[in-house]
Design goal:
Blueprint: H1 5-31, E1 38-39, E2 41-43, E3 46-54, E4 67-71, E5 77-78, E6 82-85, E7 90-97, E8 120-122, E9 125-127, E10 135-141, E11 146-151, E12 173-180, E13 185-190, E14 214-219
Length: 220
C-alpha cells in the first residue's frame, strides 16, 4: 500500500520536533546554569543540612513549581539543591516538609534505607517505613543507597504555605535522619515522587531540573 506523501511529511516533522526537544533537554542538563552550592554546617563533630520542601516556589521563573530549598550557615534560605559535605563525616539532615501527600507509585520507596540505624524521625517519632499514601516527596541518593520517604501535611491543614521560603509557623512535618558521607565525589540525588503538576505523569518540569527536585551532594 502506498503511503500518502502528506503523512510521510507529517511523521518527519514530528520526528524532527521530538529530536530537537530531546537535544534541548540534554544540552540544558549538561551545559545549563546550576545554582550555587550550600555547605553543611559543623555540628558536634559532624555536619548538618537543613532543607525544606515547598508546594510552590512562588517566584520567577517558575512560581508554580514544587521545590527544595537549603539553609546556609547564616540561617538564610537559598534556592539550591547542591550541597557540600566533608568526606567520611556524619551528616544529619533535617527536612521541613510543607507539601501535602502525593503518594508513592512504588511501595519500595516507603522504606527508609541507607541512614544510621535504617531509620528516620517524623515529628520526633522514629520510623523505618512510611505508609505509601502519606508520602509527599523522597530524598533519594541512588549511588549511596540512601532513600527517605517524607510524610506530607494533611490536605485540610490550616495555614498552609504556598510561597517559599516557608516559616515554622506554617503547617509542616519535620523529618530528621543521618548518614555517613562517602569518599570525595559528586552524587546525584532525586525526589522519586512524581509531583510535577501539569507534566507528563508528573515527571516533567521540576522533577528533572537541578535546583528544584533533584540535585547533587558534593563530597569534598
Amino acid at each position: 500500500m502506498r503511503v500518502p506523501g502528506g503523512r510521510i511529511a507529517g511523521v518527519a516533522v514530528v520526528s524532527v520536533v521530538l529530536v530537537a526537544l530531546a537535544a534541548a533537554y540534554v544540552f540544558g542538563f549538561l551545559f545549563g546554569g546550576t545554582p550555587a552550592a550550600v555547605s553543611a554546617v559543623s555540628q558536634n563533630g559532624g555536619v548538618r543540612l537543613t532543607l525544606q520542601t515547598v508546594p510552590s516556589y512562588g517566584h520567577a521563573p517558575d512560581p508554580d513549581w514544587v521545590s527544595y530549598l537549603a539553609q546556609d550557615a547564616s540561617g538564610h534560605w537559598q534556592h539550591t539543591t547542591i550541597y557540600k559535605v566533608p568526606a567520611h563525616t556524619l551528616v544529619t539532615v533535617t527536612v521541613y516538609q510543607y507539601d501535602t501527600a502525593t503518594g508513592l507509585r512504588n511501595n519500595f520507596l516507603g522504606q527508609v534505607r541507607g541512614t544510621q540505624g535504617g531509620t528516620a524521625t517524623l515529628n520526633g517519632k522514629t520510623y523505618s517505613t512510611l505508609n505509601p499514601d502519606d508520602a509527599s516527596h523522597t530524598f533519594t541518593v541512588p549511588d549511596l543507597g540512601i532513600s527517605v520517604p517524607l510524610s506530607g501535611v494533611a490536605d485540610d491543614a490550616k495555614n498552609q504555605c504556598s510561597v517559599a521560603p516557608c516559616s515554622l509557623d506554617e503547617a509542616h512535618t519535620t523529618i530528621t535522619f543521618s548518614f555517613m558521607s562517602p569518599g570525595k565525589g559528586s552524587y546525584r540525588w532525586q525526589c522519586f515522587v512524581p509531583c510535577a503538576l501539569a507534566t507528563y505523569f508528573g515527571n516533567g518540569g521540576p522533577m528533572q531540573t537541578i535546583g528544584w527536585m533533584s540535585g547533587l551532594i558534593e563530597v569534598v
